[in-house]
Specification:
It is a single chain. The chain is 45% helix and 15% strand. It has 10 helices and 6 strands; from the N terminus they run H-E-H-H-H-E-H-H-H-H-E-H-E-E-H-E. By secondary structure, it is α+β, with helices and mostly antiparallel strands. The strands form 2 sheets. A 4-stranded antiparallel beta sheet has the order 2-1-5-4, sandwiched between helices. The chain has a two-stranded antiparallel sheet with strand order 3-6. The chain folds into 2 domains: 35 residues; 216 residues, Ribonuclease T2-like (Ribonuclease Rh, Chain A, Alpha-Beta Complex).
Length: 261
Amino acid sequence: MQRGDVAVFSISTVLAAIVVGAVTLSLLVLDRSPRTTVIGSESASSTWFVVTWGPGLCKVEPTNLGCTSGNVGEMGQTMVLHGLWPQPSTNQYCGVPKEVADRVRNVHGSDMPSVQLSQGVQTELQSRLSDAAVMAPHEWYAHGTCSGVTPDEYFGNAAALTDQARKILDPMFKEAAGASMTISRVRDRFDAEFGAGAGERVGLSCRNVTGEGSVIYEVQMSLPPVVDIATSGNALSLGDLLLKGPPLSPQCRHGHVSEAS
Protein backbone atom coordinates (compact mmCIF):
# COMPACT_ATOMS: atom_id res chain seq x y z
CA MET A 1 0.00 0.00 0.00
CA GLN A 2 1.39 3.39 -0.97
CA ARG A 3 1.83 6.26 1.44
CA GLY A 4 -1.06 8.24 -0.07
CA ASP A 5 -3.32 5.23 0.23
CA VAL A 6 -2.32 4.81 3.87
CA ALA A 7 -3.17 8.46 4.58
CA VAL A 8 -6.55 8.17 2.93
CA PHE A 9 -7.27 4.93 4.78
CA SER A 10 -6.28 6.50 8.11
CA ILE A 11 -8.48 9.54 7.57
CA SER A 12 -11.40 7.33 6.55
CA THR A 13 -10.93 5.20 9.62
CA VAL A 14 -10.88 8.25 11.90
CA LEU A 15 -13.99 9.70 10.27
CA ALA A 16 -15.79 6.38 10.57
CA ALA A 17 -14.86 6.18 14.24
CA ILE A 18 -16.15 9.72 14.80
CA VAL A 19 -19.45 8.91 13.08
CA VAL A 20 -19.88 5.69 15.06
CA GLY A 21 -19.04 7.52 18.26
CA ALA A 22 -21.50 10.30 17.50
CA VAL A 23 -24.28 7.86 16.72
CA THR A 24 -23.54 5.86 19.86
CA LEU A 25 -23.52 9.03 21.96
CA SER A 26 -26.81 10.16 20.41
CA LEU A 27 -28.42 6.85 21.23
CA LEU A 28 -27.12 7.00 24.78
CA VAL A 29 -28.37 10.55 25.22
CA LEU A 30 -31.77 9.66 23.82
CA ASP A 31 -31.97 6.56 25.94
CA ARG A 32 -31.11 8.53 29.06
CA SER A 33 -33.40 11.48 28.31
CA PRO A 34 -36.16 11.85 30.89
CA ARG A 35 -39.39 10.35 29.64
CA THR A 36 -42.48 12.50 29.89
CA THR A 37 -44.94 10.91 32.30
CA VAL A 38 -48.54 12.03 32.54
CA ILE A 39 -49.26 12.68 36.19
CA GLY A 40 -52.89 13.08 36.97
CA SER A 41 -56.25 11.44 37.10
CA GLU A 42 -56.46 11.48 33.32
CA SER A 43 -54.20 8.38 33.41
CA ALA A 44 -56.05 6.54 36.16
CA SER A 45 -59.48 5.21 37.06
CA SER A 46 -60.89 8.22 38.85
CA THR A 47 -63.15 11.24 38.39
CA TRP A 48 -62.72 14.88 37.55
CA PHE A 49 -65.14 17.11 39.44
CA VAL A 50 -65.28 20.33 37.40
CA VAL A 51 -66.79 23.70 38.30
CA THR A 52 -66.73 26.90 36.24
CA TRP A 53 -66.39 30.46 37.53
CA GLY A 54 -69.68 32.03 36.41
CA PRO A 55 -68.34 35.44 35.28
CA GLY A 56 -65.46 33.65 33.56
CA LEU A 57 -67.86 31.38 31.71
CA CYS A 58 -69.76 34.30 30.23
CA LYS A 59 -66.52 36.11 29.41
CA VAL A 60 -65.10 33.10 27.56
CA GLU A 61 -68.39 31.87 26.05
CA PRO A 62 -70.76 34.86 25.78
CA THR A 63 -73.14 32.83 23.57
CA ASN A 64 -73.52 30.11 26.21
CA LEU A 65 -77.24 29.51 26.74
CA GLY A 66 -76.90 30.04 30.48
CA CYS A 67 -75.31 33.44 29.81
CA THR A 68 -77.71 34.64 27.11
CA SER A 69 -80.71 33.60 29.21
CA GLY A 70 -79.39 35.51 32.21
CA ASN A 71 -79.39 32.43 34.45
CA VAL A 72 -75.64 32.55 35.14
CA GLY A 73 -75.78 36.28 35.78
CA GLU A 74 -78.59 35.79 38.30
CA MET A 75 -76.40 33.34 40.22
CA GLY A 76 -73.87 36.13 40.75
CA GLN A 77 -70.21 35.57 41.53
CA THR A 78 -70.17 31.85 42.17
CA MET A 79 -68.97 28.54 40.84
CA VAL A 80 -71.24 26.78 38.37
CA LEU A 81 -71.33 22.99 38.13
CA HIS A 82 -69.91 21.61 34.92
CA GLY A 83 -69.83 17.92 35.76
CA LEU A 84 -68.38 14.72 37.16
CA TRP A 85 -66.20 13.21 34.45
CA PRO A 86 -65.12 9.55 34.78
CA GLN A 87 -61.51 9.09 33.73
CA PRO A 88 -59.72 8.43 31.45
CA SER A 89 -61.17 11.21 29.32
CA THR A 90 -62.02 8.77 26.54
CA ASN A 91 -64.54 7.15 28.89
CA GLN A 92 -67.64 8.79 27.38
CA TYR A 93 -71.06 7.91 25.92
CA CYS A 94 -71.12 4.45 27.46
CA GLY A 95 -73.82 2.37 25.80
CA VAL A 96 -75.32 5.46 24.16
CA PRO A 97 -76.64 4.91 20.60
CA LYS A 98 -74.79 6.91 17.97
CA GLU A 99 -77.85 8.93 16.98
CA VAL A 100 -78.35 10.00 20.61
CA ALA A 101 -74.66 10.80 21.07
CA ASP A 102 -74.70 12.96 17.94
CA ARG A 103 -77.63 14.97 19.33
CA VAL A 104 -75.95 15.36 22.71
CA ARG A 105 -72.69 16.62 21.21
CA ASN A 106 -74.59 19.62 19.84
CA VAL A 107 -74.82 21.17 23.28
CA HIS A 108 -76.46 24.32 21.88
CA GLY A 109 -79.17 22.37 20.09
CA SER A 110 -82.81 22.23 21.08
CA ASP A 111 -83.15 18.55 20.17
CA MET A 112 -81.57 17.36 23.43
CA PRO A 113 -82.77 13.93 24.66
CA SER A 114 -84.36 13.92 28.10
CA VAL A 115 -82.98 12.33 31.26
CA GLN A 116 -85.25 11.12 34.07
CA LEU A 117 -84.57 12.95 37.34
CA SER A 118 -86.56 13.33 40.54
CA GLN A 119 -88.16 16.71 41.14
CA GLY A 120 -85.81 17.36 44.05
CA VAL A 121 -82.67 16.84 41.97
CA GLN A 122 -84.10 18.91 39.11
CA THR A 123 -84.66 21.78 41.53
CA GLU A 124 -81.10 21.51 42.88
CA LEU A 125 -79.63 21.66 39.39
CA GLN A 126 -81.49 24.86 38.48
CA SER A 127 -79.21 26.91 40.74
CA ARG A 128 -76.03 24.97 40.01
CA LEU A 129 -75.92 24.30 36.25
CA SER A 130 -75.62 27.12 33.73
CA ASP A 131 -78.70 25.81 31.88
CA ALA A 132 -80.14 22.67 33.46
CA ALA A 133 -82.47 21.85 30.54
CA VAL A 134 -79.48 21.48 28.21
CA MET A 135 -76.56 20.70 30.48
CA ALA A 136 -78.17 17.90 32.52
CA PRO A 137 -78.86 15.67 29.48
CA HIS A 138 -75.50 16.59 27.95
CA GLU A 139 -73.56 15.72 31.10
CA TRP A 140 -75.52 12.54 31.73
CA TYR A 141 -75.18 10.98 28.28
CA ALA A 142 -71.60 12.17 27.74
CA HIS A 143 -70.24 11.33 31.20
CA GLY A 144 -72.87 10.02 33.59
CA THR A 145 -73.54 6.90 31.53
CA CYS A 146 -69.98 5.81 32.33
CA SER A 147 -70.30 6.45 36.08
CA GLY A 148 -71.99 3.25 37.24
CA VAL A 149 -74.66 5.13 39.23
CA THR A 150 -78.21 6.33 38.53
CA PRO A 151 -78.93 9.84 37.19
CA ASP A 152 -80.31 10.94 40.58
CA GLU A 153 -77.18 9.71 42.38
CA TYR A 154 -74.89 11.23 39.78
CA PHE A 155 -76.42 14.70 39.86
CA GLY A 156 -77.30 14.59 43.56
CA ASN A 157 -73.66 13.99 44.42
CA ALA A 158 -72.51 16.62 41.93
CA ALA A 159 -74.84 19.23 43.43
CA ALA A 160 -73.68 18.46 46.99
CA LEU A 161 -70.02 18.70 45.96
CA THR A 162 -70.70 21.99 44.18
CA ASP A 163 -72.03 23.51 47.42
CA GLN A 164 -68.86 22.48 49.26
CA ALA A 165 -66.60 23.76 46.49
CA ARG A 166 -68.42 27.10 46.50
CA LYS A 167 -67.71 27.61 50.20
CA ILE A 168 -63.98 27.42 49.49
CA LEU A 169 -63.64 28.91 46.03
CA ASP A 170 -66.27 31.66 45.92
CA PRO A 171 -64.63 33.89 48.57
CA MET A 172 -61.23 33.52 46.89
CA PHE A 173 -62.50 34.36 43.42
CA LYS A 174 -64.63 37.27 44.65
CA GLU A 175 -61.62 38.76 46.40
CA ALA A 176 -59.44 38.32 43.31
CA ALA A 177 -62.09 39.51 40.80
CA GLY A 178 -60.53 41.91 38.32
CA ALA A 179 -57.02 40.75 39.19
CA SER A 180 -54.84 37.67 38.74
CA MET A 181 -54.73 34.49 40.80
CA THR A 182 -52.25 31.60 40.86
CA ILE A 183 -52.77 27.86 41.14
CA SER A 184 -50.41 27.95 44.15
CA ARG A 185 -52.84 30.15 46.04
CA VAL A 186 -55.75 27.85 45.23
CA ARG A 187 -53.82 24.75 46.23
CA ASP A 188 -52.64 26.33 49.47
CA ARG A 189 -56.27 27.12 50.34
CA PHE A 190 -57.30 23.50 49.82
CA ASP A 191 -54.36 22.28 51.90
CA ALA A 192 -55.35 24.64 54.71
CA GLU A 193 -58.96 23.46 54.57
CA PHE A 194 -58.52 19.72 54.12
CA GLY A 195 -54.92 18.89 55.00
CA ALA A 196 -51.62 18.50 53.17
CA GLY A 197 -51.99 16.84 49.80
CA ALA A 198 -55.51 18.04 49.00
CA GLY A 199 -54.15 20.89 46.89
CA GLU A 200 -52.24 18.49 44.67
CA ARG A 201 -55.61 17.19 43.48
CA VAL A 202 -56.69 20.62 42.16
CA GLY A 203 -55.97 22.19 38.77
CA LEU A 204 -57.00 25.30 36.85
CA SER A 205 -58.20 25.65 33.27
CA CYS A 206 -57.65 28.99 31.51
CA ARG A 207 -58.82 30.40 28.19
CA ASN A 208 -57.44 33.33 26.19
CA VAL A 209 -59.85 36.26 25.84
CA THR A 210 -59.11 39.27 23.65
CA GLY A 211 -58.24 42.25 25.80
CA GLU A 212 -57.91 40.24 29.01
CA GLY A 213 -55.34 37.61 28.19
CA SER A 214 -55.48 34.31 30.04
CA VAL A 215 -58.78 34.04 31.95
CA ILE A 216 -59.42 31.44 34.64
CA TYR A 217 -62.28 29.36 33.31
CA GLU A 218 -62.62 26.22 35.45
CA VAL A 219 -61.38 24.50 38.57
CA GLN A 220 -60.84 20.75 38.28
CA MET A 221 -60.63 18.42 41.27
CA SER A 222 -59.44 14.81 41.21
CA LEU A 223 -61.67 12.35 43.07
CA PRO A 224 -62.14 8.56 43.23
CA PRO A 225 -64.42 6.86 40.67
CA VAL A 226 -68.02 8.12 40.82
CA VAL A 227 -69.28 4.69 41.85
CA ASP A 228 -67.09 4.91 44.96
CA ILE A 229 -68.48 8.29 45.97
CA ALA A 230 -71.21 8.09 48.63
CA THR A 231 -74.76 8.02 47.29
CA SER A 232 -76.90 11.13 47.53
CA GLY A 233 -78.48 9.77 50.72
CA ASN A 234 -75.19 9.93 52.61
CA ALA A 235 -73.06 12.88 53.67
CA LEU A 236 -70.29 13.73 51.24
CA SER A 237 -66.92 15.16 52.18
CA LEU A 238 -65.07 16.91 49.37
CA GLY A 239 -61.91 16.91 51.47
CA ASP A 240 -61.97 13.16 52.11
CA LEU A 241 -62.66 12.45 48.46
CA LEU A 242 -59.84 14.71 47.28
CA LEU A 243 -57.31 12.91 49.45
CA LYS A 244 -58.38 9.61 47.87
CA GLY A 245 -58.01 10.85 44.30
CA PRO A 246 -54.76 10.71 42.28
CA PRO A 247 -52.66 13.90 41.94
CA LEU A 248 -53.64 16.26 39.15
CA SER A 249 -51.48 18.43 36.89
CA PRO A 250 -51.73 22.15 37.80
CA GLN A 251 -52.32 22.93 34.08
CA CYS A 252 -52.86 26.72 34.11
CA ARG A 253 -50.40 28.33 36.52
CA HIS A 254 -52.15 31.71 36.78
CA GLY A 255 -54.86 33.73 35.10
CA HIS A 256 -57.21 36.68 35.29
CA VAL A 257 -60.35 36.36 37.43
CA SER A 258 -63.31 37.87 35.61
CA GLU A 259 -65.75 40.17 37.36
CA ALA A 260 -69.50 39.85 37.08
CA SER A 261 -70.75 41.99 34.21
